[in-house]
Amino acid sequence: MAQHIAVAGNIGAGKTTLTHMLAKSFNWDLQLEDMDDNPYISDFYEDMQRWSFNLQVYFLTTRWRHVQAIRKGKKTVIQDRTIYEDAHIFAPNLHSMGLMSTRDFENYGQLFEAISGQIEAPDLLIYLRAGIPKLVDQIQMRGREYEDAIRLDYLKRLNERYEAWISDYKGKLLIFNVDDMNFQDNPDDYAKIIDQVQSTLNGLFP
């Protein structure tokens, strides 16, 4: 039986919604991102350059603890976003945009390198692929005040990095294009996801 399932995708792709739905369908435990309790997120979107390092270190240490707890537990857990997205997508993107200094980025990289040897990749990664219009629409629909400041070029750069990361991902992977489906409101779309997840897990864990 799988122990660690993870849902990855850009801001607004529908990760949290799908994580809740799959947890209910498969009776898995939830590991959510808890953005509303994040002490840095609002400040970050107001001033990315000032708060980028603080935010990324917070995410890194929080998700490290989560992965350790998942692997020590006995239940199957589905996680909303992975530690690898922080290290391979968000932090490098902030650095390339000039929103994180080279000194901070190198410090962050050393921290991740020290941590990465102590964690295992998810047994199954589910990637939600979405275009910018879909992301913007869903971000606006959920109405988080701190996300009003998200820039389109920021989302676009993140998408590019997600695609590069996924194209080189070595673990067990399922990709769903959410531009072409509405799994939250369309039972047929959600059934397709359930079928693929079930068949993949059966192949992994007979």
Task: Explain what you see.
The structure is a single chain. The chain has about 210 residues and is α/β, with parallel strands linked by helices. It has one domain (about 30-205): 3-Layer(aba) Sandwich (Rossmann fold), CATH 3.40.50. Helix content is about 55%, strand content about 10%. The chain has eight helices and five strands, in the order E-H-E-H-H-E-H-H-E-H-H-E-H. It has helices spanning about 15-25, 40-45, 50-70, 85-95, 100-115, 130-140, 150-165, 185-205, and strands spanning about 5-10, 30, 75-80, 125-130, 175. It has a five-stranded parallel sheet, sandwiched between helices. Helix 3 (about 50-70) runs antiparallel to helix 4, helix 3 packs parallel to helix 5 (about 100-115) and helix 4 (about 85-95) packs across helix 7. The longest helix is centred in the N-terminal third of the chain and has 25 residues, at about 50-70. The chain is globular and about 45 Å long.
Domains (count): 1
**What's the overall average pLDDT, rounded?**
90
**Overall morphology:** globular
N/C terminus separation = 8 Å
Secondary-structure element series = EHEHHEHHEHHEH
Rg computed from alpha carbons, rounded to a whole number of angstroms: 17 Å
Total number of helical segments? 8
At CATH level 3, the topology is Rossmann fold
Number of strands: 5
Kindly state the percentage of residues in helix.
55-70%
Q: Please describe the biggest sheet, giving its number of strands, its sense, and whether it closes into a barrel.
A: 5 strands, parallel
Weakly predicted, low-confidence segments: none
